[in-house]
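User: Hi! I'm working on a homework problem where we have to compare a predicted structure to a textbook description. Could you give me the structure for the chain below?
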Amino acid sequence: MVFLMDCEMRKNKVIGEIFLERGLVSQEQISAIANKKSNHLFGQKAVELGLISEEDLVDILSEIYRIEIINLEFLYIKEETLKLLKTETAVECCAVAFFEEQHSVKIAISDPGNIIAIDKIRSQIKNRDVKFFIAKESEILRFLEIMKSDNKLIESNPMMLLNKILFKASEQKASDIHFEPMENIVRVRFRIDGILKSFQIIEKEAWTRIQSRLKLIANLDITENRRPQSGHTRIHLAGKTIDLRISTHPGIFGENFVIRIFDLSSGIKSLAELNFDYDDFCWLKKAISHPNGIFLIIGPTGSGKTTTLYSLLQSLNSSNLNIMTLEDPVEYQIEGIRQLDIQEEGIVTFADGIRSILRQDPDIILIGEIRDEATAAMAVRASLTGRLVIATLHAATPFEGIRRLQDFKLKLSDFIPSLIGIFSQRLIRYKKGDGYEGRFPISEYVFFSESLKNKILVGDLGFELDKTFRTSAQNAIDKNLTDIQEIKRVLGHENF
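Assistant: Happy to help. Predicted structure tokens:
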């Protein structure tokens, strides 16, 4: 016992010294921590006093004990895994089992220096390797409360139910989660490979807490339910960094929620990895080789245009170029490129952001989306001053892309001279046996040569595309990549 007390005192001294070295506390505050009456250990007492954050404490303990950190906030733990530790053991050791395989178990613990707790856990989980991780005590306590609540199923806890839904959506590579309130229940559906599929029904009582949680993490007004709202948050889920775009819309039975999911851990795919047809790949490379002008990528939501946009940007990235982006929000961070998030930078509009960027002497500008007249006018202005501007635009076809710019009060003579090309794409599911699996892009596009520009400027908009969706789709069918039913689902029966 004396030995353990001595070890604890030495550990507290080490932690206190690190607090001082990092400027987290003063010498007087170290004394205050030591004198605080609490059942908690030194580091946790510092958190209770508000002198350091839980994140700081976990980082320091991780360094001292050379133990990995696990974020439990959005973690979904299977019920059978959670029960690997007896409730009394989990509470006593402030630990929780969060993952198991045939020969191993992973345990989250708040104090990795508690040798007695670690030995007790190892003795309880026999015949399997046990790997320990450090987690915030507050996150572990949330799971301990579930374990103590009359052995109810984890799914009966609304917050764990939300974690399960997020986990399963990520696991199944869903692009969107739909929460759809009905009269007595809420339907949950996932969009996977472009198709909405039912996942689960949840009770209205649980939904009340879930929607409040979603609003909180997305910084939405929790009291507002009569008007649409949108926000985003970044979370760590099952070892992945996930960006969630959360939007709400009022309905007769309550607010509808849609969560768009971006798996940031997978990184940015190269243009070659996007599985474009070789001709499309070469056309894109040619389009972005121009030193100035404006290049548009168009298509509806979910058509993959943002993925293509980032791949193009990655291929252009060079130490010889000043590349800047204006996004709402920044989805993927690219080293060497200066990316501006409208919300974080306090920029009111895209147009204001472009004005600011132009003062930074950019060679290439990426605009997340042209949404209004001012942004359209500034994008064209930037392209006319010797910059390459790449932007997305909500339009179905290149012809509609031109009309959309005209809707923004731009004359043909304003933007046609600087227009490099318009590229439109859709995502088609691969045919796999009796079903479908994964997706690849088909496209249609036009390059604006000088002769075509002159033709359009005299009012002749009856030009031909370099490639059409019909041609692109037929090529895919001829290569047995997909079938006509899938093509008609995406393009419509009247278009094929």
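For your comparison, note the following. Residues 1-6 have pLDDT under 50 and may be disordered. Residues 277 and 442 are 8 Å apart (CA to CA). Good luck with the assignment!
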